[in-house]
Amino acid sequence: MEKPRIAIVGAGAVGAYAGSYMAQAGHDVTFIDPWPEHVEAMRSRGLTIEHLKDVPPFTVPVQAIHLTELQSFAKQKPVDIAFVCMKSYDTAWATTMIAQYLSPGGYIVSLQNCINEEVIAGIVGWGRVLGAIASLITVELSAPALVKRAAGKSGASHTVYRVGEPHGRVSPRAEYITSLVALSDSALTTTNLWGERWSKLVANVMGNGIAAATGLLAKEATADDAIRGFAARLGSEAIRVGQALGYDLEEILHLDAEIIAKAGEGDDAARKAYDAQRLADTQKPGGGAHRASMGQDMMKGRRTEIEYLNGFVVARGAEVGIAAPANAALTEIVKRVERGELSASPDLIRNLRLN
């Protein structure tokens, strides 16, 4: 049977990491990216993947094109599977761009930080959308054609990828996508895409904006008592909003969602359990010695996804009558740092006074 044609739309850290293993396994993969130097490096010397431990570095030859060259697809075999791995604010145009080159049975997989399936479905229809979550993957595009992962493989200790259909049933195509992402690390097909999505959102809400506002590595932020406490409050608000929306939440940062929620609400026993787990995580190999993706964006002068993470919690909370003041405050701080009105500093969080 002929292998499907796969497009990775956005060859950033996650897209390049997952796609490199697909290419290594012999799949027909084309990487599409807007960064010219990255595209040229992939073309000339392949895509290099490095891990903090356990996995030897490797380089795989890949097909890569700049997004301005995508019109060449009109004369080629249609795309069967398109992984959209762009920033959330680029989802709509990236989906529109690749949709015209899909085969009749082709579909799009959102392999992104935020919740973008509805945006994609508005362009191609719900029948052509799947979701894929990359949990605690800690990858960074540190240079053109070079992805570094601040860990080894998670394997059985933590399931990195969760793939699901919006309707919640297990389908052959969902299982096939699971098999593709499983080439790079542990994966499962979920019947709870929306619960998985919101759980991933909570984890991002607790770390990404803080990295952008403070300039700290994940490990440094977790070690700071005040910032760790603020992260719990961010998570608590997001969890309560998700519960009000009816989502069945999964484990978050190796903790039951209710522990995080209660810790953020001031429950002493929950806060002790939360602190113990979060601090224990920093002692593991790698242990948060990485910069969350929004922190990377801030350092590179790129637009952040704060409005699609913490800002999204605030907006959805308003719909169900739940205030999210901590998430609102962090959203505003990150926007001001982006605009150059504030300089990234831990004190931006430490000095917050919320009722």
Automatic annotation (TrEMBL):
Keywords: NADP, Oxidoreductase, Pantothenate biosynthesis. SUPFAM superfamilies: 6-phosphogluconate dehydrogenase C-terminal domain-like, NAD(P)-binding Rossmann-fold domains. Pathway: Cofactor biosynthesis; (R)-pantothenate biosynthesis; (R)-pantoate from 3-methyl-2-oxobutanoate: step 2/2. InterPro entries: 6-PGluconate_DH-like_C_sf, 6PGD_dom2, ApbA, Ketopantoate_reductase, KPA_reductase, KPR_N, NAD(P)-bd_dom_sf. Residues 192-338 form the Ketopantoate reductase C-terminal domain. GO terms for molecular function: 2-dehydropantoate 2-reductase activity; NADP binding. It comes from the Bacteria. Its EC number is 1.1.1.169. GO terms for biological process: pantothenate biosynthetic process. It catalyses: (R)-pantoate + NADP(+) = 2-dehydropantoate + NADPH + H(+). Residues 6-151 form the Ketopantoate reductase N-terminal domain. Pfam families: ApbA (PF02558), ApbA_C (PF08546). GO terms for cellular component: cytoplasm. PANTHER family: 2-DEHYDROPANTOATE 2-REDUCTASE, 2-DEHYDROPANTOATE 2-REDUCTASE-RELATED. Belongs to the ketopantoate reductase family. This is 2-dehydropantoate 2-reductase.
